[in-house]
Amino acid sequence: MVLTDTTFKKLQNIVGISHCSRKKEDLICYAYDATARSYLPSAVLFPRDAGEISAILHLANSDRFNVIPRGSGTGMTGGSLPVEGGIVLAMGRLNRILEIDKDNLIAHAEPGVVTGHFHRAVESEGLFYPPDPSSSDFSTLGGNLAECAGGPRAVKYGVTRDYVLGLEAVLPTGEIIHSGVKTAKGVVGYDLTRLLIGSEGTLGIITSITLKLLPLPEAVSAMTAVFDHIETAAETVSEIIRRGIIPRTIEFMDNASIRCVERHLNMNLPVEAGALLLIEVDGKTEEVGTLIEQLRTLCVSQGAKDTKIAGKKEEIAALWKARKAISPALFQYGPDKINEDIVVPRSKIPDMVRKIEALKEKTGLTMVSFGHAGDGNIHFNIMLDKKNRDELKKAEAAIDALFEYTLELGGTISGEHGVGITKAPYIAKEIGSV
Q1: Each residue's pLDDT tens digit, 61-89
Q2: Which pTM was predicted?
Q3: Domain spans in the chain, listed from the N-terminal domain onward
Q4: 351 exposure class (CB count in 10 Å sphere: 0-12, 13-18, 19+)
Q5: Cα–Cα distances in Å, from 382 out to 85, 152, 265, 324?
Q6: What fold characterizes domain 328-427?
Q7: 3-state class (DSSP) for residue 400
């Protein structure tokens, strides 16, 4: 779409000349996200508050241009891409933590706050914000809310929507609304807060957030369990949950992900293993040691050929460094990646693992699986060269088969990455035609 000079000058008057650009070198920086797809916007704006955003949306309605809100651009499904042009609203200037209320266990923050920075800020006060997407060192709170991000700790603590008490948001009409409460309870009116969370910026632009916090756990311990076969590791996850043990995380890595991380970081990982589980527990100091030992014993009884307990912060940090390195390290296997995040009932993880192994054998493609086994969220990746039409055709057929089987098992085709543009063609499979 074409943004006229007259409209652009109006936008400059709203946010200031220094916070509004349509220079090509600036537009390119906001044309892509983690999907590696690229669509050039007509302009990029850096608003400072809800009032400016309201004025921009009022203008968008009168002058007829698209508005696309954007956090850090770490999205995996293209939800922040200006696919039909328009202006990108880069939310990075709304980056203040306004309050950490230790008496009421809540915090007030703006959407441009980097999630990892928020974690460290509340933890310095002895408090805890559980949602922890793997991109937390880069992604923002606003983006996390827009996608309803989860992360490894979701198995015990839930996802982003479980920690949002209230919002300020600007509707597409330009109207500023306030939803939710600052208290532990509140049932007056419709729950617009939960409606906005996960709506990927389509229902409104979040400008302020009230978040629920928890006391920081006294202690954390972690362990790894190495298995010869990925099916055995998957069955072990199901058994852990069946026994009523709820760790704070249960992550898994298949052989391909173990190998690529080892080449990337040289951490002496078990490259011959079929799979590795990374399990973490937290709680009272006297409870953590007992619980991690119970889990170690259970893993051994299920067939783990090796287990290691990491009690020190440095050891735990090293394990998470390996886990978070998987996604970028995968490009050792090919120049392009198709990345999906299916979710199945936890008891069905072994079935899904067997399906993925069958797809790998049938297609001959490089497929890598890892993710949040504790809540059934599997990050499934196909590494390929998209210029190879034969490979791409096989990959697309494999994705289609994977989604069909996911739904057959009672799962969903997206656990935390959203729909965006990459999963839009598949959405009718899950919710029907609209």
Answers
A1: 999 999 999 999 999 999 999 999 999 99
A2: 0.94
A3: 5-93, 97-215, 219-322, 328-427
A4: middle
A5: 29, 21, 21, 18
A6: Alpha-Beta Plaits (3.30.70)
A7: helix
